[in-house]
Specification:
about 80% helix; mainly alpha; elongated; Troponin; acetylation
């Protein structure tokens, strides 16, 4: 087991050494890049901004001011256009990154639990307060059945009127009616 520990320590030390080497390389690359950008900036300024020589007369000064104002306006427009392009490119980049992310399938579906839920509860969850329909079909069926039997009984009672009259005729009939509370 001590042999294994030595191996692990060696691997860890190697990893640490590689990390520090990579960091040093990155730092030197950043320094080079910064220096190159500075040189590029100086070259650009030398090319686009020649040293200013102030003319002697008032009229020449006014002309220079007009030229400078015009230059400022055009540079401002350029800056604005560049900013808009940058925003557009940034947005496109974000969209592409999102597509990449989606394509890689980084989004893990959460494990779904099975939930026993009645149709009523489901509709209530989906529709919230708008849900008023009662989906308990058995209850509806029972209600319909009861109503039907009531109607059928009424129809039976009314349908056979001779039987009805015979039942209610005489003292026996009157007694039945009295007991039924009619």
């Amino acid at each position: 087991s001590s042999h294994l520990q030595k191996k692990r320590r060696a691997a860890t030390a190697r990893r640490q050494h590689l990390k520090s080497a990579m960091l040093q390389l990155a730092v030197s690359e950043i320094e080079k890049e910064t220096a190159a950008k500075e040189v590029e900036k100086q070259n650009y300024l030398a090319e686009h901004c020649p040293p200013l020589s102030l003319p002697g007369s008032m009229q020449e000064l006014q002309e220079l001011c007009k030229k400078l104002h015009a230059k400022i306006d055009s540079v401002d427009e350029e800056r604005y256009d560049t900013e808009v392009k940058l925003q557009k490119t940034t947005k496109e980049l974000e969209d592409l990154n999102q597509k990449l992310f989606d394509l890689r399938g980084k989004f893990k579906r959460p494990p779904l639990r099975r939930v026993r839920m009645s149709a009523d509860a489901m509709l209530r969850a989906l529709l919230g307060a708008k849900h008023k329909v009662n989906m308990d079909l058995r209850a509806n069926l029972k209600q319909v059945k009861k109503e039907d039997t009531e109607k059928e009984k009424d129809l039976r009672d009314v349908g056979d009127w001779r039987k009805n009259i015979e039942e209610k005729s005489g003292m026996e009939g009157r007694k039945k009616m009295f007991e039924a509370g009619e």
